[in-house]
Amino acid sequence: MKYAVSEKYRDIRLFTERLVEPLSAEDCMVQSMADVSPTRWHLAHTTWFFETFLLAEEPSYQRFDDEFHFLFNSYYNTLGEQFPREHRGLISRPGLQRIMSYRKHVDDHMLERLQQHDFAQRHAQLIEVGMQHEQQHQELILTDIKHVLSCNPTWPNYQFLPLDRAAQPRKESSPADWIAIDEGVYEVGFQGAGFAFDNESPRHRVFVEQCSIDRQLVTCGEYLEFINDRGYQRPEHWLSLGWSTLNREQWHAPLHWHNLDGQWMQFTLAGLIPLELEAPVAHVSFFEADAYARWRGKRLPTEFEWELAATRLELAGDEPFADYLLDHRLAIHPMRAPKSLCGSVWQWTASSYVGYPGYQPPAGAVGEYNGKFMCDQHVLRGGSVATHSSHIRTSYRNFFPAAARWQFSGIRLAQW
Amino acid sequence: MKYAVSEKYRDIRLFTERLVEPLSAEDCMVQSMADVSPTRWHLAHTTWFFETFLLAEEPSYQRFDDEFHFLFNSYYNTLGEQFPREHRGLISRPGLQRIMSYRKHVDDHMLERLQQHDFAQRHAQLIEVGMQHEQQHQELILTDIKHVLSCNPTWPNYQFLPLDRAAQPRKESSPADWIAIDEGVYEVGFQGAGFAFDNESPRHRVFVEQCSIDRQLVTCGEYLEFINDRGYQRPEHWLSLGWSTLNREQWHAPLHWHNLDGQWMQFTLAGLIPLELEAPVAHVSFFEADAYARWRGKRLPTEFEWELAATRLELAGDEPFADYLLDHRLAIHPMRAPKSLCGSVWQWTASSYVGYPGYQPPAGAVGEYNGKFMCDQHVLRGGSVATHSSHIRTSYRNFFPAAARWQFSGIRLAQW
Amino acid sequence: MKYAVSEKYRDIRLFTERLVEPLSAEDCMVQSMADVSPTRWHLAHTTWFFETFLLAEEPSYQRFDDEFHFLFNSYYNTLGEQFPREHRGLISRPGLQRIMSYRKHVDDHMLERLQQHDFAQRHAQLIEVGMQHEQQHQELILTDIKHVLSCNPTWPNYQFLPLDRAAQPRKESSPADWIAIDEGVYEVGFQGAGFAFDNESPRHRVFVEQCSIDRQLVTCGEYLEFINDRGYQRPEHWLSLGWSTLNREQWHAPLHWHNLDGQWMQFTLAGLIPLELEAPVAHVSFFEADAYARWRGKRLPTEFEWELAATRLELAGDEPFADYLLDHRLAIHPMRAPKSLCGSVWQWTASSYVGYPGYQPPAGAVGEYNGKFMCDQHVLRGGSVATHSSHIRTSYRNFFPAAARWQFSGIRLAQW
Amino acid sequence: MKYAVSEKYRDIRLFTERLVEPLSAEDCMVQSMADVSPTRWHLAHTTWFFETFLLAEEPSYQRFDDEFHFLFNSYYNTLGEQFPREHRGLISRPGLQRIMSYRKHVDDHMLERLQQHDFAQRHAQLIEVGMQHEQQHQELILTDIKHVLSCNPTWPNYQFLPLDRAAQPRKESSPADWIAIDEGVYEVGFQGAGFAFDNESPRHRVFVEQCSIDRQLVTCGEYLEFINDRGYQRPEHWLSLGWSTLNREQWHAPLHWHNLDGQWMQFTLAGLIPLELEAPVAHVSFFEADAYARWRGKRLPTEFEWELAATRLELAGDEPFADYLLDHRLAIHPMRAPKSLCGSVWQWTASSYVGYPGYQPPAGAVGEYNGKFMCDQHVLRGGSVATHSSHIRTSYRNFFPAAARWQFSGIRLAQW
Question: Best mutation site among A206, A208, A375 for testing chain B: the one with the most B CBs within 10 Å?
Fold first, then answer.
């Protein structure tokens, strides 16, 4: 165990730094909207997590810099005041180099302690949470920097990869391939030996009606039909809140789509490229996913329908997750639909994000991790090209507000 | 049937006008926030509903005024553009008198047609919807005018009733009186012969865990303990969104509570009165209901737990609903807790407002009634002192955003 | 003197009520934007002025209603807190009738005291300020109600006069008629025996360069040439702040102009009518006046150039001021250009509103009347169809922010 | 001439880079509010100015990067669209290094051409404008980075100088030392052989009343008396717009003043230091300068009174301007009051910023330099510790909106 966990810790921390390699100190500074954090903040905050919840508990440990405790706390109210989220982009000091030193300092101390069986044992749960937490921020590093670069009129290329260095799309031949689910009482939620967040438990029973789930993700080409049918101009397809959001924000297409002189282009982490009709649509809000489904005469699955369908399938092993893409020097861009329900893009479900029956957040500051966000957010399931494959679970609940579009969020349909 | 429906129509329309009797033409003008509509708008819009969906279908019918079609449409996009909601308070013409003439015109035509068996038969469903719709607006007339008058620093009295003309509170003696529910698959949703809105169907099965529901509503006195325990200063009790709302809106207590020189006062439809500790707390948001429950070590019931508990109990017949209070010349103010789960104040549930499995909104403009609001709203159950008793059903789903406080919304607790 | 002042007082108070005659209690409620006050507020506030500054000083006087002191104070900080300006439209009580009773109460007391030579003598200055103040609010009643009614999509007619009941325009034959001013040191500012506001003094010397002032106001037809020359699309004509305002507010023409299917219409106090090309343009901001002048190769006069030109001319006696128009049952609408520089529309000058050399506001609350607004406002000179003729002086300084358009504000050109 | 101008060009360009030396690439990224530009933007924009107005006119010249034309245009509408000002902080590419290459590229080309007598002659005026323009941005680099660093809770030190490395204050002994000006007609505005901006001309006559101007700047200690006399709580001292700004922005003291546990501290370019009572007050708005003067029973001078007083005095040669401070390794911080009226802090005048009689902006894009900002801004005269000494002229007109506080702006009093 001792060996395994320190290895895993090192790998995860290294993967974060690998993601940041193509970026300049200046790229790492930008906060392009309140939802986005500067890359440098992600680098420091994940480190702060280990320092605060694990190292600072040790009497012998000396904090790297006392001011970091205030600067890199995210939202843990019980740990004291935080630097205001929307101003994270205003802090140029400490510089990136010093933040990398901070990472090294904490890594050295963590790796040393992870050798101690007692430490690893005692804090097993928190160490795991810290690593899962870092993996969540790895995904945010990618989605946030995509938003940052999209604000630059010169359409920068994050990875400096040529356009063809992307996994090829594989829209399967039989479009009518639906996964059937019988009505009945099912158990859902996490079970097993590994790690899961508190919000995936307790495992519990739900009654599910007979229904079926599309094995395929909705593609850009299919979504384009909705646009061309004046989908963004017809209120009857939209939730009331979606319709007012669409009008206020002047939405005409998914985020990062641009109609240049009649041709549809798409901003990607490899720069601006023509829209790929066979690739899964991404960067849609819950409102758009819901409107598309209604227009198509279908609906979004509930998170439990999704989970039941997903647990029947196996991951293929070469799914286009972030680590696979980086290892193969492929662009982080959802061109290929996965064989399982997981991956390529997160999938909006019809479910609001609430606690499972009997849910209790853990005591202390870690209790602020999930439960307090259970309001006016919508569950997404699956995983995306920006997720690390080891971070994928069929019981995993991602969640965002209905208007969020800067994630790799797409659509899978269901029907009765 | 013919007789019954015209009678019911007349009664409902008269009850609306009875509610407006204490108000001046000027009172009826005010829109104190975007959520509130001027009383005159409620008077006209409910009339517009009957004219548009029933009379205008008849070839012989002449519209009272063509411009009203635009002015008094609320949100039916399929019926064309609407006058912007937030500007309803800017329209001084037509005046109140002309709006009352409009009501009379439409009532004359409706009552004449309701005599025709064929008409009543053919449109039975729409006529019923129109009446239910008017009853919903009766409640809004009361909650909206309460908000309007609360903006006036002279604390006007809506009904001109003395302070003691209110139903007396009856907090039952045994506080530990909980209604137990066994785990199992239950049927929920509307069933039976009468009327129900589309969102109460389809009746369907849900799996419910063992739990119990408090027979009593939370009182002002109990809620005051939360305030005095610094409930509004401690983030650990609150949802994240609730905590930011509380800070932005500077909430320190329920809406309409005022601490004047150390004494808690409450603005009511009978003016400003001392806080009544035994009366049910009202005008709390979902955020406050949820935080109070957490602080108390309890939780809010789901809407299905609530419905199961409520269907076991009978209405008492003299519950403090709006019609009872008006008939007895009592102030419209939640001083008395009801014997059933219904009434006194609406009760926030833990459930987000979503469609039941298989839910389909009706075709046409009436389809815009409920379904399109199924996002980021929270279900309330019961009914309040501002509701007409005939409008109460245990399957009835009221819904508002988590921050809404201007309704008579209160708290009932649940526990595992 | 005793006779004269009470007569004048009575006339002015009556004229206010004459202006309100065509309005319903509901019309008098509306505050269509923060700059606009409800008519009922004007009625009460002008009365409050006499009560507060004159009657309340008398030991024997009993206030009509203590709460009015708070409700109808406008901006006199030294008199205590005020009801927030932007919420004036939310107060439905006291009703219009009670406000009229307030007026009668104060008028009775004022008229009684004005019989007392001693009172009239002692307070001569304040009485005069009160009457001038009421005349300013008479003009605001008209401009504010025009804005209020313009928000109503049914285009109501304030006076119920037919469209042709307006004074005919008289664009003089010789367009090149410029009033020449020689360079030199001149005295400007108020002098003489009558009343003037503090901001018109001290009379002082200024150096003025040689220049000339157009005897004619800019007409709607001339302004239309600017629009048709893409004046609103070309930044080179505009001040930087004007250009950003124009874009933010989506200005395409003066306020109250509407292009309906290619025809230019104009909302007036007599409802919606076709644009009259020969009438003076009104409802332009300082930004539009300045841009028009620049486009025309001219400029706006300074307030001193304007004053020098105006003092050479006499008023004609039948100028189209508010009292003349009402007496002749003509629409209050600037169709006729005046023979003097005064009247028809206020004229934006190039001068910022600042105090004259040696200017000192009076001591006490009345000192808050003018001086504290001397920042980021622009001087207008002349008078408009909404002004009472007795309120006109060539030294009179009106002032509004550069973006204000709801006044009858127009353009007179100057050149070197 | 050939020699002189290329030398001057080189010196000015080098001074800019000297100012940026202490900053990291990350510091140079931040835009802490809309008024502030990132340092890197200043570096690029000043270069863009020379490229656009001088080099791009030469047929042989190759632009460094075509995209820079769009990215680094500031507000020249006639040169096409600009990148939105408030988003300048979102652009991380081109990076700082590439911007420095851009500077070198343009400098090489400029210096080569400045050797050509014909080029220097033909463009003499534009070359001079470009250099003056760069000097204006040098000052902005300092004031903007001060604002940027002030957002960082760790109070960074821009120059890394110890606290005592500042010029010592020299409040002169005789406080009643006023410069008298007699009434009369005076000539004001630029005259002579050197350079001046268009807004300093035409030289023209004004009539000035007898008055006197304080030889001393208002100090922090004097300003503290105003604060301690509850100056920020008493509306009678304030312009109406100032009072509402103060309340909205929660002003309690000048910008960068912090009351920490009862001790007044001040954020400076040398970090956080105790308030120096004898140093000139800085970072006050026009509103605060005006309120202070009124409270003191004095007033602000007009810009012409200031100019007349200043033209009588000579610069001392060792005034604390930016170049002197840098040469002597002193902190850029207004500790020493100058012997002349110029320097230490800019001084708000009572004058609105308008064109002088007969003022005409130059034709073409350079015409957008000054004239279009002549609205709702207030003239400041003098110069500050952030100004280069060679940039000082007694006719120089600086201008900012009344609420601006991030400049080194202070107070000099006048009286009749």
Answer: A375
pLDDT tops 90 at residue A206: yes
What SS3 state is found at B239? coil
pLDDT in tens, B260-296: 999 999 999 999 999 999 999 999 999 999 999 999 9
Is residue C37 within 8 angstroms of chain B, CB to CB? no
Q: Which pTM was predicted?
A: 0.94
- Across the interface, of C26, C67, C151, the residue whose CB is closest to B26 is C26
- Predicted ipTM of the assembly: 0.94
Strands A271-274, A398-400: pairing is unpaired
pLDDT confidence bin for B163, thresholds 50/70/90: low
| D345 in Cβ contact with D254 (< 8 Å) | no
- Tell me the sheet residues that pair with C347: C381, C410
Beta pairing partners, C206:
C186
Question: Is C87 part of the contact surface with chain B (CB cutoff 8 Å)?
Answer: yes
Looking at chain A, which subunits does it touch, using at least 3 CB pairs closer than 8 Å as the criterion?
Answer: B, D
Q: How many Å apart are CA B208 and CA B183, to the nearest integer? A: 5
Residue with the larger pLDDT of the pair B337 and A327 = A327
Task: Please compute Rg for chain A using Cα positions.
Answer: 21
Q: Which two tokens stand for residue B177?
A: 């009186």
Which candidate, C138, C137, C147, places its Cα nearest to that of C325? Answer: C138
| Contact between chains at D29 and A32 (C-beta distance less than 8 A) | no
Q: How many CB pairs under 8 A join C and D?
A: 75
Q: What are B367-376's pLDDT values in tens digits?
A: 888 899 999 9
- Matching residue, tokens 């519209």: B63
Which of A242, A290, A372 has the CB atom closest to B239's CB atom? A372
Q: Are B91 and B30 in contact (CB under 8 A)?
A: no
Cα distance between the two ends of chain D: 46
Query: What pLDDT is recorded for position B271?
Result: 93
All residues at 6 or more sequence positions from A220 whose CB lies less than 8 Å from its CB, including other chains = A266, A275, A276, A277, A278, A279, A280, A281
| Residues D89-100 as b or e (16 or more Cβ within 10 Å = b) | bbbbebbbeebb
Q: Which two tokens stand for residue C276?
A: 């009259």
Q: Please name the residue of chain B whose CA is at the shortest distance from the CA of residue A365.
A: B236
Tell me whether residues B185 and A207 touch, CB distance under 8 A.
yes
User: DSSP for C301-343?
Assistant: PPHHHHHHHHHTS---S----HHHHHHTT--SS--S--SSSSS
CA distance D345 to D380: 10
**Backbone torsions φ then ψ of B277, nearest 5 degrees:** -65, -30
Dihedral of CA atoms B346, B348, B349, B353 in degrees, nearest 10, equals: 90
Name the residue among B206, B207, B239 with its Cβ closest to that of A375.
Answer: B239
Below-70 pLDDT ranges, chain C: 1-3, 163-166, 169-176
Rounded to an integer, what distance in angstroms lies between the CA atom of residue D370 and that of residue C20?
47
> Is A235 close to B402, i.e. CB distance below 8 A?
no
Contact of C11 with C327, CB cutoff 8 Å: no
Other C-beta atoms lying within 10 Å of the C-beta of residue C228: 8
Residues pairing with C260 in the sheet: C263
**Cα B57–Cα B63–Cα B64 angle in degrees, nearest 5:** 145
Q: Do D32 and A67 touch (CB under 8 A)?
A: no
What is the spatial distance between Cα B398 and Cα B394, in angstroms, rounded to a whole number?
Answer: 11
The residue of chain A with its CA nearest to that of B202 is A209
Report how far residue B184's alpha carbon sits from residue A122's, in angstroms, rounded to the nearest whole number: 39
Neighbours of A196 (CB within 10 A): 18
Task: Decide if D58 touches C, using CB distance below 8 A.
Answer: no
The Cα A250–Cα C313 span in angstroms is 55
Q: Residue D1 — pLDDT band, cuts 50, 70, 90?
A: very low
pLDDT at D64: 96
SS3 label, residue A51: helix
